[in-house]
């Protein structure tokens, strides 16, 4: 398996494509520039199996409609943010970009910390609320990688001043769900470059003294 990062839109939100040798892939957080993202997937010859969402802020969901129009695949989201997909007030698009982002789909709702298997891809679901109520991280043990959305960044943490954000909850999520992963685990965040759990434990100023 290999992962590819594609920063999209004005906020340069990271969409990730995780592909298998058999040509299948899953798409994480297709946030914007749907035409560009679809063309890239086509050019690589990938066959998407699913869209996996770490959370439902507008900059992580804006290209869903374009992707599922081309490939009618299931969309996975934590149940607490199901309604956010079609509600610009909840997903923030009504406030921040002056246009209404609505994902037109019937999502598969994730409810518990469990194992999710899609084709040849297996993820351990980690509930990591704080940035948003339904933030979820996907840990792929096979490639020692966690897709963390806007929970943990290289040298920083997710913001908690948006509706539903909670600083104490975010810090608890990071410490109880992410920092317990092996230190060599690669962290693929919603914005910016990749990092590792060990690097953030050693150098992230937001994680010291909590």
Automatic annotation (TrEMBL):
Occurrences of domain Metallo-beta-lactamase (ranges): 12-191
Cofactors: Zn(2+)
Protein name listed in UniProt: Glyoxylase-like metal-dependent hydrolase (Beta-lactamase superfamily II)
Superkingdom, taxonomy of origin: Bacteria
GO molecular function, one term: hydrolase activity
UniProt KW keywords: Hydrolase, Metal-binding, Zinc
SMART domains according to UniProt: Lactamase_B
Organism this protein belongs to: Anoxybacteroides tepidamans
């Amino acid at each position: 398996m290999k992962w590819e990062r594609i920063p999209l839109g004005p906020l340069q939100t990271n969409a990730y494509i995780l592909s298998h040798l058999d040509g299948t892939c899953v798409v994480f957080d297709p946030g914007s520039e749907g035409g560009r993202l679809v063309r890239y997937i086509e050019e690589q010859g990938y066959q998407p199996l699913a869209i996996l969402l770490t959370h439902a802020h507008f900059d992580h969901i804006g290209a869903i409609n374009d992707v599922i129009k081309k490939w009618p695949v299931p969309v996975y989201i934590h149940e607490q943010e199901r309604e956010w997909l079609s509600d610009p007030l909840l997903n923030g698009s009504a406030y921040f970009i002056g246009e209404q982002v609505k994902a037109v789909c019937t999502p598969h709702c994730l409810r518990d910390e469990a194992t999710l298997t899609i084709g040849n891809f297996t993820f351990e679901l980690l509930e990591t609320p704080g940035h948003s109520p339904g933030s979820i991280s996907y840990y792929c043990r096979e490639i020692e990688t966690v897709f963390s959305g806007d929970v943990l960044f290289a040298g920083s943490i997710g913001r908690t001043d948006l509706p539903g954000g909670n600083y104490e909850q975010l810090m608890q999520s990071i410490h109880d769900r992410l920092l317990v992963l092996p230190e060599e685990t690669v962290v693929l965040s919603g914005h910016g470059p990749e990092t590792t759990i060990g690097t953030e434990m050693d150098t992230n100023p937001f994680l010291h003294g909590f």
